[in-house]
Known about the structure:
Blueprint: E1 7-10, H1 16-27, E2 31-36, H2 39-48, E3 53-56, H3 62-75, E4 81-84, H4 106-127, E5 132-139, H5 150-169, E6 175-182, H6 205-217, E7 222-223, H7 228-237, H8 239-246, H9 249-255
Parallel strand pairs: 1-2, 1-4, 2-3, 4-5, 5-6, 6-7
Helix pairs in contact: 1-6, 3-4, 4-5
Bound molecules: NADP nicotinamide-adenine-dinucleotide phosphate.
Amino acid sequence: MNLKNNTILITGGTSGFGLEFTKQLLDLGNTVIVTGRNQDKLDQTKKQFPKVNIFQSDVSDPKAIKELFQKVVTQFPNLNMLINNAGEMRKINLHDTSIDLENITKEIDINLSGPIRMIQQFLPHLKKQKNGAIMNVTSGLALIPFPISPIYGATKSGLRSYTKSLRVQLKNTNIKVFELVAPAAKTPLNDKFANDVDPKSLMEADKLVTIAIKGLENDKLEIYPGIANVLKIMSRLAPAFFLKQLSKPVDKMLNS
Ligand SMILES: NC(=O)c1ccc[n+]([C@@H]2O[C@H](COP(=O)([O-])OP(=O)(O)OC[C@H]3O[C@@H](n4cnc5c(N)ncnc54)[C@H](OP(=O)(O)O)[C@@H]3O)[C@@H](O)[C@H]2O)c1
């Protein structure tokens, strides 16, 4: 797809990949709209990139999605691309009885229900555009579980499955459906995992986003930057070995 002169909505555009997408997509001459929950982070983003358009909105709240839709399509009727990027990843010990039933599914509400609801809400509008596009940000952990983050992996596998079905159902429309299978990268999301992930294995967010943008420009529907390519192959060739490697931090968690 041509990545110039689009109107692009990015959920979670105030940090990490979302912030980097904002920078690079603005540089290419697109209109960029970003969301996030924290107004201070939105204001900082606006200060850093005065051309960006900001909306406070929580992707885990269906009512907020409806309100966001009304505001965005009224102000930006040419909106033609949605990047479902907002996400959260927590370390969760499933033995911890203090986690209540609402809290345990927080990642599902944000990482899985969020994109599904955003697409359901924005799809009729995107279908009217000449060049529509949706990109869902999944993860290498959609391919192999990371057992200290059991809910996160489940959401990303689920989002990957949904994305494939969506692509098939939209085959007769003008909407291209992309999946960014992101590897571990240097963003605030990984701060909580400093003792569990080798910092040398983390990809730079700007590099990752540049590869993602090249992938979009070349109509690569599944984009695997950096080590995500290796994970894709190894998850098929040696899934048990890789699960064992990614299971190593569990012992520390169970003993803490
Ligand atoms: N970093 C990695 O290693 C990695 C690897 C693979 C995939 N990913 C995926 O890449 C995406 C971006 O991650 P990141 O590393 O860039 O994370 P990040 O730096 O923590 O940024 C997350 C962004 O999402 C927003 N957000 C979180 N919950 C939200 C909600 N309920 N509603 C709206 N916005 C929300 C945050 O803003 P507020 O807190 O203000 O809402 C922030 O702007 C996520 O889907 C993540 O799962 C990351």
